[in-house]
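Thread: Modeling a multi-component assembly for a lab meeting

Hi all, long-time lurker, first post. My supervisor asked me to bring a structural picture of a complex we are working on to next week's group meeting, and I have zero experience with this. I have the sequence lines for every component (762 residues in total). Could someone generate the structure of the whole assembly? Inputs are pasted exactly as I received them:
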Amino acid sequence: MKKFRNYYLRAKLHKPLEMKKREFAFISMDKGIMFRHMKFQDVGSLRRYILRNVPSHVYYSSAFYDFPDAPKMEQKVWKGAELIFDVDSDHLDLECQAKHDFWLCENCGYMSRRKMESCPKCGSTKIKAYKWVCDNCIEKAKNEVEKLVFDFLINDFGINEDSISVKFSGHRGFHVRVMDERLYGMDQHARREIVGYVTGLDIDPSIHGINEDLFRGEHGLRPPSIKDPGWRGRIVRYLIRLLDDIDENSRIEGLKRSQVLKICENRESIKKSLSSSNPNYRIVKGLGAKSWMSLTLEAVKRYGVKIDAPVTADIKRLIRMPGTIHGKTGLIVKEVDVESIESFDPFVDAVAFRGKKQKSIRIDVYTPKFRILDEVYGPYKPGDVVEVPEGAAIFLVSKGRGTVLR
Amino acid sequence: MERFYLRDVSPFIFYAKYPWLGSLRDFVEKVGLGFNEETLKEHEVEVDEAVNMISHLIRGRYREIDERPSDFLKKPVEEFYKQIFARILISILDDRYLKERYAVFIQKRTERLLMEEDEDVIFSIAKDEIGWNVNKVDLVVGGKVYKFSIDFKDYLDGSSGIDDRFWSLSNRVLKKGSVLLSRRELVRLISQKARNVVRGFTSKKSEEVPYSLKMKLMPLRRLLSSYKRELKIGGKLVPRFLPPCIRNLLEMLKKGENIPHFGRFTLTSFLVNIGMEIGDILELFSHSPDFDEKIARYQIEHIAGLRGSGTKYKTPNCETLKKLGFCSPDERCKNVKSPIVYYSRMMRRRSFGGRK
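Re: Modeling a multi-component assembly
Sure thing. I ran the full set together rather than chain by chain. Output:
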């Protein structure tokens, strides 16, 4: 707590746009209670509040209100909201998760590498998830952010790069915010449609020309070509990528094994045809409209942007304030330049506590390998007592893996 | 080149066709149409026609109020007044059911009329009247001809409420922030906007309504309440008319099985929306194993809009129910989008055509 307070004494807190119209909320360090419906005139008064209460999490609303401090939502008078996207590696299906995440039954101590709702041993539903974040998680999340920002928001939606702001969430991912006044008034319907677009989950291949009739060239509508704008061209790019990723053992929903093998045999000729400006989807016999529909859905599912959909659809979301500390890691919620997101390293760039003084930590729960300020720690077993500098110590304690020894 | 507006050339025809447009207010002011006994007397014929039109609307007889474009050319001024009065009367009646019918009517009518308009008229309604950022283009993508492009934000504004995957943004061509549209698609978008605008019409206070008009409204109110009563159940359910999803939930309730939260919400909002009394709903829920009258009453009243923010909750539609695994359709679920529609259709068949 003292450490957090020290951080906030000197922390760079930028005044958020339209600060007076936003609701602020905090989660207390001791009991984890949320205090919300607060309003601040300027960064000074906000900092004073934080220093007095030292919360573990600081949020403000993505929405703007006439009365942000009104105790009931319907009294606040909603005036609009930023368009936000939450890219969280937790929502990505990653191989590294099987290596560093586990679930523990709090009743009998049974541990599983796979997600469980109830304990197979004692039947208890008191299951605690122990999730970790590693370099791979961050890299994969970065890829999603780049895809979302450059390929979708800038290219398809025509959004100006200057109005896009990306920040490291302080934990497993990034928040992408579009601060374009024209879009503030969009309702939930509109935002849900945008989710459907960037994830591709609303795509119907037949409407894009991938169906029985259209293959025959009736109705005048043709299947997508790589040069087409929007999803049409992207469908072709994703299909080509999928063709590269498929091997003899791949399972594609809606495709028989013989068809998968056929794809592998004719991979290059299909790719060549798809890459041309007048693609022929019927180049291989036995791969008809239905198969192409299945392939399209598979490609979109694999390569579309993975986001936490409800966050974008919510017009009254509380989001973490940049410059504050994420209480579950001790890392800073930090603005990142999207052009150079590749070189952003949260385990160096977002470390709030850089002191060299060693702390003694008793490990309570198994802790996978991690890295703070270019020093690698762990893995640690419960019962280990380790001497680590404060950045690593706070990370361990915040993640609930260890306790400080006095 | 100077743009050429139908609105400026023949405003009476223009507003008779599109009485939902925002700029109508200015025009009404300009022609000095006061809302008083004098005007009403002068236009009594049109008022009566409007009343007639509304009574057809209440009964769902859209065809009888179907005008052909030639009607506008014959008597544009009369048609204009009829449409204006209809709009005013509907906002005085302030009934959700009627407003919804009127919205559907306006949408279909707008779509039909726009299809016959010149491209410039369609364009100017989208751009100058609604205020959308639309541009004329001439593009072919994937063999399809596009005549217009519209800012994606405005596209989403127009497509709101169209329940069809074809209109989902991800199934459109989106290029640098603009959605490409064919002429027919822009027409559909405008007509959907018309529907949404009509839905949002505010109600008129009855103190401002002249006496003679109040008299004309009486039979409409009676018709409305009698028509709606036929759809309502007034405390008694007709179980054989219930859609299968609701029937399943009721079965579970009667058997004393515990219904998941969303199921309770669906059931309650369904019963509230077909007009069942809160006491009767409470009675039904008393079969529930974890029944607590105080909590149950609060929740039902909340869904009915008597508590909290005061909004009456809508019953989840079929799509939602399907997604959450509550749907087990029978053959009568065809072309039905919500359990309410199913029930009211069945009830109406009983009241009007015997059984089918």
